[in-house]
Amino acid sequence: MEEQMPIAFQLILHGGNARSAALEAIAFARKGDAEAAEASLHQAEQEISTAHCIHTDLIQKEAGGEETKVNLILVHAQDHLMNAITIKELAAEFVHLYREINNK
């Protein structure tokens, strides 16, 4: 179980970074700074990609027969990642909407 703690904390770290970058993208878009908004969305995507690779590795190990002991921190990490993905997707829509509004 201890060996999974660094994995869980990496998922939390990258998920949190992605969430923050996505929300930052919305703030930039609201101010009319489309370039900064897109850069923040890109940063969020990179963070999610990093977390997703870590997550996929964990899943592949379990599928290969390596036992994964689930604890509250690992569940929290999974929740953190899923929320970050959802927020990033919604942020992309907000950025698009603000771009449309600002162009009118």
TrEMBL record:
Pfam families assigned: PTS_IIA
Chain positions with Phosphohistidine modification: H76
The keyword Lipoprotein belongs to this UniProt entry's keyword annotation: no
Highest taxon, organism lineage: Bacteria
Residues at the catalytic site: H76 (tele-phosphohistidine intermediate)
GO CC list: cytoplasm
Residue numbers binding Mg(2+): D79
Free-text remark on how the cofactor is bound: Binds 1 Mg(2+) ion per trimer.
One GO term (biological process): phosphoenolpyruvate-dependent sugar phosphotransferase system
Keywords, ordered alphabetically: Cytoplasm, Magnesium, Metal-binding, Phosphotransferase system, Sugar transport, Transferase, Transport
Protein name (record): PTS lactose/cellobiose transporter subunit IIA
